[in-house]
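Input (structure):
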């Protein structure tokens, strides 16, 4: 069967039993109270900073980019939006001059996104604007809610699964900048680390040989349709896991993203020796590291570790800002 025909059917399925098994481990997570360089800034400055950061955060290390922008933009981010609305590629290039993978700096693209985002934030943060109203009464849904208002930012458009918009909602909620009154409306932010994690643990799995073939072997560019169908399935599986674990989606998203990007990484060593056999807990945030005592905390329920007949899956290769 061709890949096109396979994608016409039901190319991915959810193993709810494995979701439940993973949720039993995830339910033990207790987040630490965190303080950040921006925590002492005014609430509106924090919102402006986080929005600018998330708008240009793709294909680059989250921590490196956030630290660089914090040093540049804080503490008065909201009062400097006109300045950021004139960001040049040269400024981005200089800001990230020491980043190891210079091909991912993308100065023209990031400068353009930053200019657009700052321009829209200038409008949204007026004295009677949506951001100030949301800081007083934070909520996600509705015409005056977070999704509708921040969805006006160009960098958050073009992705049916709203990865960046949802990531921003998660950070604002988890860090207490905007503690939303309707957290049940938080939505998963599905990106490539989470796709790899859910495929490897077997909570989401391909149902057709052509799809298996597309996700194994040497990495190659994937079709947008395959990526979107996989993201939609992982989205639902994450909602299931959050419900089973008794966690809000923002907390689950953060926890599993940290585990995926640190432990469930792409490499596979000689003689089938995955990185997760010796999990690097010291590289994890303290609250996440408490779940990791030696090997990967998914070990008991991970299909890749427990079933030698299960394929070693990699996430689809798809170089887009939404991914």
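Output (sequence):
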């Amino acid at each position: 069967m061709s890949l096109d025909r396979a994608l016409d059917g039901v190319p991915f399925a959810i193993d709810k039993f494995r979701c439940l098994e993973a949720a039993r481990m995830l339910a033990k997570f207790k987040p630490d109270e965190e303080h950040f360089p921006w925590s002492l800034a005014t609430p509106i400055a924090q919102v402006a900073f986080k929005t600018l950061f998330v708008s240009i955060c793709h294909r680059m290390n989250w921590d490196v980019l956030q630290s660089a922008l914090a040093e540049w933009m804080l503490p008065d981010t909201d009062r400097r939006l006109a300045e950021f609305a004139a960001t040049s590629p040269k400024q981005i290039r200089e800001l990230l001059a020491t980043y190891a993978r210079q091909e991912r700096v993308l100065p023209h693209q990031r400068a353009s996104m930053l200019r657009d985002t700052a321009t829209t934030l200038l409008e949204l943060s007026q004295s009677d604007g949506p951001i100030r109203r949301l800081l007083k009464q934070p909520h996600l849904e509705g015409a005056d809610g977070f999704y509708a208002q921040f969805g006006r930012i160009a960098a958050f458009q073009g992705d049916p699964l709203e990865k960046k918009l949802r990531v921003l909602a998660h950070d604002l909620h988890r860090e207490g900048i905007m503690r939303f009154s309707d957290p049940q409306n938080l939505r998963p932010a599905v990106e490539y680390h989470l796709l790899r994690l859910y495929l490897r643990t077997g909570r989401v799995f391909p149902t057709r040989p052509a799809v298996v073939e597309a996700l194994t072997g040497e990495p190659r560019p994937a079709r947008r349709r395959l990526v979107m169908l996989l993201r939609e399935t992982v989205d639902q599986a994450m909602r299931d896991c959050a419900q089973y674990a008794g966690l809000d989606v923002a907390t689950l998203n953060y926890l599993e993203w940290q585990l995926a990007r640190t432990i469930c990484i792409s490499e596979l060593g000689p003689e089938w020796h995955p990185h997760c056999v010796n999990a690097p807990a010291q590289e994890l945030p303290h609250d996440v590291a408490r779940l990791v005592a030696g090997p990967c905390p998914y070990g008991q329920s991970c299909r890749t570790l427990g079933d030698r007949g299960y394929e070693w899956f990699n996430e689809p290769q798809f170089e887009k800002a939404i991914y």
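Notes: Residues 191 and 227 are 10 Å apart (CA to CA). DSSP finds 16 helices and four strands in the chain.
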